[in-house]
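Researcher: Next sequence.
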Amino acid sequence: MLNKEVWNFIYKYKVLFLITNLIVSIAAFGYLVRADVTQELLKDPKIKDVFDARVAQAKNIIASDTSINRVPVSIDPVGGHPISKVVTRSDIISTSSANLQSGTQGTFNVPGLGKVSGTIKDIAGEKVLVTQDGTANILPSSGVEVVSTVGPNPFGAAPEIPIIGGNVGFFFGHLIQGLFYGALVAGGIQLIGSLIGLDKNLVDSLSLAAFSGIAGGKAVYGLISEFAPSSSMWAQPGWLGYTNAGWASFAIGAGVAFAVFVATYKDESKKIVTFSCLSWEAQIKGEDCEKCNGDPFKPCSEYRCRSLGQACQLLNKGTGNEACAWVNPRDVESPVIDANRNFISLDHSYKDVQIRPPGLGMKVIYDKSSDGCIKAFTPLQFGVVTNEPTQCKIDNAHTDKFDDMAFFFGGSNIFKYNHTQVLSLPSPSAVNSENPQVPDDGIHTLYARCRDANGNFNVDEFAIRICVDKSPDTTAPLIVGTSIRDGSPV
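Model: Next structure:
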């Protein structure tokens, strides 16, 4: 089954696909009509009797008979190897004269050889031939021999239409093939590109370039095939001759593909950058703590020591021998995270609290609901506590590490023990919010991580699960404040 990317490509370029489908349909209809109409007519006994009578009259050289519509022609191409073929009246493409006779030049579509240009050479026997203007021409012939001036079409027979069969000549045959194969290749690029994760703009441009290049190259090859036998340049096997027609078509198709790719591909991307005015915090760990002790004329202070790293502490305070040191540099344990039971919305509570480590989270429920789901469009307050000063972050998506998370817990980057968060359901003002947004229905999970002064954080996320009531919002608005605080009741 085609994936969404392929269907998007087909919809985007639906005009090209409609044109391709129309050309194929018309060609198929024309081929079927041309192949079947004569046989269908001859199934009628009356028409067949008339047809047989006309043929008999033609053999008896009745000059006024103009109904014969099929002409056997023998082809004797140049090259030392005569080839006898029988063609129909419809295979006479054009002649230099309305009368078919010895010396008449013409162009013939010979099955198995393609288009052949030549002249009628000899006449033998007796036959009534119908010329292109519809008039009868009595020729003592059971056919006409044609000797080609350039030999048979070096490109062979006209190509068949994919799937449905039949042919509509060299140019349209190759064009339809090009459109068909180009669409297949473009669809394959869309499918493979989406599976291996290529950029969508790159995949779309490659698909359109491949489609255009294949269709263009095949169209050029069709033109050469159509006109090569009658062209003094392409008819010869030189560097501009039919022997290099494939390379010429390939070069033109590649040029078309390159031009389309250059014109359509744009390497661009969009990123949302959110700027937050947070408190300045010293770097984590304490590799630079000792820098505070290097100047004997400028003793280290608490402020200078703390500014060099989160794990830096001033020792020997007030003794005149103050020193800044990295306390506990071998600390590799991540913080312990628990529910902040002193901070929770009214009528709400924590459930299934599992302190990490080794636990992995907790639930926040609404006490007055049978299923514990909180009301939609209701602000929710909750928090966590840690066993040491930490920074905590929260996100509604899985991440690999602390720095990948989007939001600081409560919008604060301060190292502290208690971290509180206020959430609200989506609203028009939620764009660029500094807090994660919870959808207004179903069960959802928020993920929290905390990092201590030495940079240790919990790789396994602390999950906070919230259920939001799916029922319609029937609660009237609650006024909780005014823009001008004047002490009046709300």
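Model: Confidence is low (pLDDT under 50) at residues 21-41, 57-86, 122-152, 427-432. The helical segments are 4-12, 14-42, 45-59, 170-195, 200-227, 245-264, 302-307.
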